Predict the structure.
Amino acid sequence: MTTAVHVPRINNNDDSVRVVRLMANEGDQVRAGDIVAEIETDKSIATVEAERDGVVLKVLCSTDDHIGVGSVMMWLGAHAGDPIPESSDRAGAALSAATEPTAKARALLNQHGLAASQVPASGVRLSAADVEAYISQSGTRADSSRAAWSTLPEGEAQPLTMEERAMIHVVTWQKDNAVPAYVEVEYDSAPWDARAAAFMAEHRLMMSPLLPLLAHRLVELARRSDKLNATIVDGARYCFRHVALGFTVQAREILYLVVVREAETLDAVRFVARLGELQRRALSRQLRPEESQGATIGFSSMARWNVSRHMPILPPHTAVMVAHAATRRGGTAVLGATYDHRVLTGFEVCRLLNQMTDAGDATAGRAPEGEK
Amino acid sequence: MTVSAPRDVIKAGIRAKIVEIAAGLGIDAADFTDDDIIPATGLLDSAGVLELIVWYETEYHVPLKDDEINIDNLGSINAMTNFLLARRAG
């Protein structure tokens, strides 16, 4: 009986793999569990095992071939003379390698409504640089938008506002750059509530400073850690000189990320005042461009909508965006963070969150470490 | 709203805005009195108070400095009204 060794799916995003190494040749005897090939995607390497004992009747791929998930890599028989199915041609087993795009290239193709076959590849695979060069040379950005619309049900294209375009930039840039991940810790929110109430009474404030104080705590921790206030550029960690705290503000239908620049130079009182000023300017749509861009670290809360957990999107070139949520029944709350796993580990972010949840002792007048 | 609106009209306008913002949060603030301390009632959260302040600045053409935004000046409907009238008188 003849059986196929198929290309396994390694992850959901890759429909093809590259053959790194073949460990079995035609005529070789293999046993169930033997590794017959090594394959890779953009993200990982995996091995392919024989599922039964037998003889390799035919190998349908070569090293460096790009072959489709589910296609046949080789045929195994019980005996050397077992018949091989007639449709067993090689030619990369499934794909033309020259048109197979990388993950980044595929994202760009989708973004611009292009097909891989339209774009010449400069190497073995179609790269993001190939797609960018094609777009640049052919000036197809506008045309590609129309091409994208043409695939949708009938409708009407409406121009975006400046704020909407800015938000689209914020939420779409990261998929090709940062490697976002999320962790959270649970904590007793009462000490922080008490600290905010004491601060509010002391300074005769109109609004609870809970969120600004938490954000200021994040600033203080970022000031002490280069890695928190950093991103990755050209394979190196780029540590920002100043902390620019991005803070989400929902102003009616518009979501802003207002930015407190050089936040590390502000004590808690001045930070709360500055953030309040930016929030007012956002609500009255008077933000200047520099007040809503250039964040190096972020803070977001959805407690107002009684959301008990949320996973924010990383603003451009930030390593961490802390997510505050509503207190649950029983007095506990979740403090989470989306982070760029290229810059930080989950352990480091958990440590950050645990440091943030320390409210100090409001009744004894002790501020959390770092709050002035 | 005109700059010559009498005290009661100003107070009614502020109260109506508080009720509107609270309603957006699913809260009935119809019983809100002129002397209730706005942050202390819990009817408006921080973002709601912020929205009220921004509306107050715009509606009555009274730009506020940071150090003017405090509970003494704006803590209640009466305080907000008094502050507005004093600003106009000054």
Notes: Residues 98-155 of chain A form one domain. The radius of gyration of chain A is 27 Å. The CA atoms of residues 113 and 151 of chain A lie 9 Å apart. The interface with chain B takes residues 200, 203-208, 210-211, 250, 273, 276-277, 279-280, 283-284, 304 of chain A (CB under 8 Å).
